[in-house]
Amino acid sequence: MKIRVLGSGAGGGFPQWNCNCNNCRRLRHKQMNGKARTQSSIAVSTDNKNWLLFNTSPDIRAQLEAFPAIQPKEGIRDTGIKAVVLIDSQIDHTTGMLMLREGKEPLNVYCTEMVKQDLTTGFPVFKMLEHYCTVKHHPVPLDGSSFTVDAIDDIRLYTHSLKSKAPPYSPHRHDPHEGDNIGVIIEQISTGKRVYYAPGLGEIEPHVLSAMQTADCLLVDGTFWTEDEMIACGASSKKAQEMGHLAQSGPGGMIEVLNAIPDSRKILIHINNTNPILDEDSDAFKILNQNGIEVSYDGLEIEL
């Protein structure tokens, strides 16, 4: 099984177009040891030909152009993309579907009922695409049962609900429902190898920890280093958990959680432009290294 990190940044990418924070400013002026990042998405395959996308960021066109394995191979119109799994309905995870509108076949989208509702009401991408390629929606279970995706061989998925928030545009932003945000176990059937993917984790609930403990590789929320990161840099008045993310540092933070899972490869994804781990010379980056935790980057490939 191969996992390709198409984009590793949080909403806005890095550097963010209108941001003059310490990280964005220094990267633009080549004063920082770091990498630019597009907004988060991954692709998974077992044959290096047919790919399952997890999220479709606004940067998807550039991400696909940087990834030859998924590009057209046959005929005048072709793609390695066979389906899309949406983790949530956030703009930075769904807008890329509009860039896929030229497809000659319906876009197969796997998502929860709550995500489908958001994408037909507050941000009606599904309705917009009715005038182009159209969308074929496939519901995903939240009871721990598994499902497979047509044309994606040897892959089985398990999804469960996470405690998080629907997007600000959502009609139920302040009325959380199961399925607003999900975590996914991606399992290769023939080998039993597993990846746990959750770019938005606000709380480590018992079923989340249990799922993480079964995985050979963890690709999890790397948004913020500290709980008050956005407040400290003057970018927002909200704390990390108010925005649906568990900070890495501090008691009960992601480092502490990952240290309790000794036998997995641990990789952070969905990294906000303000996070000091983007600076590879920073103390924060060194702390992650000391704890055996990697920081994902665009183009990273993981093989299990």
Tell me what portion of residues adopts beta-strand conformation: 15-25%
Report the average pLDDT across residues.
95
Overall SS class: alpha/beta
- Fraction of residues in H or I helices: 10-25%
Number of strands: 14
Strand order of the largest sheet: 6-5-4-3-2-1-14
Pattern of helices and strands: EHEEHEHEHHEEEEEHEHHEHEE
Counting copies of identical and different chains, the oligomeric state is single chain
**Which geometry do the CA atoms define?**
globular
Query: Low-confidence segments, ≥5 residues, pLDDT <50?
Result: none
Write the SSE topology:
Layout lengths: L1 E6 L14 H7 L12 E5 L5 E4 L5 H6 L15 E5 L5 H4 L12 E5 L1 H6 L6 H5 L5 E5 L6 E2 L7 E7 L20 E7 L5 E5 L7 H8 L3 E5 L7 H4 L21 H6 L5 E5 L13 H8 L2 E3 L5 E3 L1
